[in-house]
Amino acid sequence: MHPQQDPKAQPPQPAQFPAAPGYQQNQFYGMPQIQQQYPQQAFPAAPPVALPPEPGAQPVDSALRLVIILMFVNLGLSVLTTVITLLLQESVIDYQLAHSHLSPDASPAELDLVRHALQVGLWTKLGATVLVAGLYIWRAYALRRGSRGAYIRLYYICIAGVLGIAYLIFAAQAPVWMRVEQGLQAAVLVVLLFAVSRKEVRYRFAKRRYS
Q1: Is 210 exposed, middle or buried (0-12, 13-18, 19+ CB in 10 A)?
Q2: Each residue of 181-190: pLDDT tens digit?
Q3: Strand partners, 32
Q4: How far apart are CA 36 and CA 23, in angstroms?
Q5: Partners of 34 in beta bridges
Q6: Measured between alpha carbons, how far apart are the two ends of the chain, in Å?
Q7: Of 22, 50, 119, 155, which is the most exposed, with the fewest CB atoms less than 10 Å away?
Q8: Whole-structure pTM value
Q9: Secondary structure (DSSP) of 36-55
Q10: Distance from chain centroid for Cα 169
């Protein structure tokens, strides 16, 4: 049998512990609440971050100036060849026709057909020269603005130009004076490729990464 309890006795109360500094007992839910006892600290403002200047905002240095000058030297050689070819187009076509792979007993109709094809090819090259002249002016302006895409395209154009001119020279399908001009143009393109690959130019058009 259980001992009888006094009905007037009070039930045991839970142990009371002193509240930790900064806390206050919620009178409804018994949950601690944080009291603001200290003033909020003010942190110093972060220093301004200085980003590197954009490529277009940089002045044109000597390395980029050399690239643009070589571009226009190459363009000048192309225009000079175009003008001379226009003045001597019949002589150029006769030379190409004499060094073609026609049989000695070819008929006049075949000769006229080959001559017409050579004329079309010559005028196509002249039209391409005019187009390249416009692209060179636009590309030089894009390089001054710091366009990375124009820089990469110029790099590959130099490689393709050197290979293409080397093929034309060894194919010997043009007069000697034209091959001499093509050799000069190939030399300019090689120097231009070297100028484009310089460290100063590569750094100017490098891909920007901000951390």
Answers
A1: exposed
A2: 888 989 999 9
A3: 25
A4: 9
A5: 23
A6: 79
A7: 50
A8: 0.65
A9: --SPPPPPPPPPPP-PPPPG
A10: 31
